DNA sequence: TCAGGAGTATACCGATCTGTATAGTGAGCC
DNA sequence: GGCTCACTATACAGATCGGTATACTCCTGA
């Protein structure tokens, strides 16, 4: 990726997240990136493609960040679940003051045929699979159930964080997850 | 409100929710409502005002629907909490296949100075107050804590419902709320 | 009867939208 | 020297954006 293309993607990412995808035009993106529209179209071909790469890049970075956080966590499933919430809190503090970018993008992209759609649903499916996987070690019989509950707590926390309805909702969700794991997993949580 | 104005608001509500606010122009709204732009502007004055009335109307209808559901529920706080989830499930089934309209609008309206902003945050604050109020009867010492947890479960369920990541997330959230109330409230929940 | 409100039809405004065209500059590379 | 690639500058296309203007019809109520 050329330097100009990177600047375009960075400008687009910031503008799309802060103002919304449909509210931002390519002229503004080009201007903010210090690039002409010609360059922008030479590199990306269309605004839609910039949207796709914006979401794909953000998805990739989040997964890499989370993987790094999980590597640093203890190899115990209960601790790893809590590490996911810790990762979300750290990530949201500096990247997501307006809530989850995938959820926000989903509000604007309704057509399932849109090339960005699978990126959005893909991340959520991946997160659910992660929670369910970890839940399987804690409560083998109720992995699906527990995984879904963790997913709800996590998604709710991201929304609450973006809406600023009460302070530090992600930490609150983490605590709730902790007590949930303690009561659900029992001795398995301490394995 | 004149018949034409009502048709405009109905068309705008449907289009805004399904396609996003910024993605829908006034020409389309007028055409779908079977109304000229002249009439539209005579009644509402601006697109922004239509957005405000769309959200205010939806907020009002949701509160009225919820109040009706709560009136039909047993006068026991634990039952009433579950009634909120039941109301959400019924409401979402026919009005919110794409998730919470307030959350979706928040993705597009970032400016706190926008006249629609207080409607969005107002509904969420009201819901949190409702949960906290009901939680106060169940666990007087931890009303704030419990209210926030219920809020997270509820918001998470709405997001999960809109994203279709697993079937019937609102019922799942309801069940989790139920076990949460049983363990937190203890005997008080059965009062 | 007639005034006024609700509505239609149509044309227009300047601005902005996504996307394309032509022309040219500068650096690195064989 | 020549060639390619990344990039700039500028202008423009066709469509749509929010919003306004003029001129008209229909219906209701005093």
Please explain how this structure is put together:
Chain A is an all-alpha fold and 191 residues long. Chain A has two domains: 1-45, Arc Repressor Mutant, subunit A (Orthogonal Bundle), CATH 1.10.10.60; 55-190, Tetracycline Repressor, domain 2, CATH 1.10.357. Chain A is built from nine helices and no strands. Chain A has helices spanning 3-19, 26-33, 37-44, 47-72, 77-95, 101-108, 117-138, 143-163, 169-185. In chain A, α4 (47-72) crosses α5 and α6 (101-108) crosses α7 (117-138). The longest helix of chain A is centred in the N-terminal third of the chain and has 26 residues, at 47-72. Chain A is elongated and about 60 Å long. At the A-B interface, α6, α7, α8 and α9 of A face α6, α7, α8 and α9 of B. The first copy, chain A, binds a DNA duplex (30 and 30 nucleotides) through residues 2-5, 25-27, 35-39, 41-43, 46-47.
Question: Looking at this structure, what is the CATH superfamily of the largest domain in chain A?
Answer: Tetracycline Repressor, domain 2
Number of helices of chain A: 9
Question: Mean pLDDT of chain A, nearest integer?
Answer: 95
Biggest chain pair contact, residues each? A-B, 43 and 43 residues
**Portion of residues within helices of chain A:** over 70%
Cα radius of gyration of chain A in angstroms:
19 Å
First and last CA, distance of chain A? 46 Å
Task: Note the main sheet of chain A.
Answer: none
Number of strands of chain A: 0
Task: Indicate the CATH architecture of the largest domain in chain A.
Answer: Orthogonal Bundle
- Oligomer description: homodimer
- How many domain units of chain A? 2
In CATH, the topology of the largest domain in chain A is named Tetracycline Repressor, domain 2
Which of globular, elongated, flat, extended, rod-shaped describes the shape of chain A?
A: elongated
What's the CATH first level of the largest domain in chain A?
A: Mainly Alpha
């Amino acid at each position: 990726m050329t330097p100009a293309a990177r600047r375009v993607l960075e400008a687009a990412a910031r503008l799309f997240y802060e103002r919304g995808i449909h509210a931002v035009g390519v002229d503004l993106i080009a201007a903010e990136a210090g690039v002409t529209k010609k360059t922008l179209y030479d590199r990306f071909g269309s605004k839609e493609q910039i949207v796709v790469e914006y979401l794909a890049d953000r998805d990739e970075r989040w997964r890499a960040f989370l993987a790094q956080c999980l590597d640093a966590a203890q190899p115990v499933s209960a601790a790893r679940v809590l590490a996911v919430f810790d990762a979300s809190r750290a990530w949201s503090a500096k990247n997501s003051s307006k809530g989850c970018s995938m959820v926000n993008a989903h509000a604007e992209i309704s057509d399932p045929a849109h090339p960005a759609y699978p990126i959005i649903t893909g991340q959520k499916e991946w997160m659910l699979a992660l929670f369910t996987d970890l839940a399987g070690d804690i409560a083998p019989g109720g992995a699906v159930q527990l995984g879904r509950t963790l997913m709800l707590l996590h998604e709710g926390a991201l929304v609450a964080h973006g809406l600023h309805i009460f302070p530090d909702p992600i930490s609150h969700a983490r605590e709730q997850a902790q007590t949930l794991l303690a009561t659900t997993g029992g001795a398995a949580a301490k394995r």
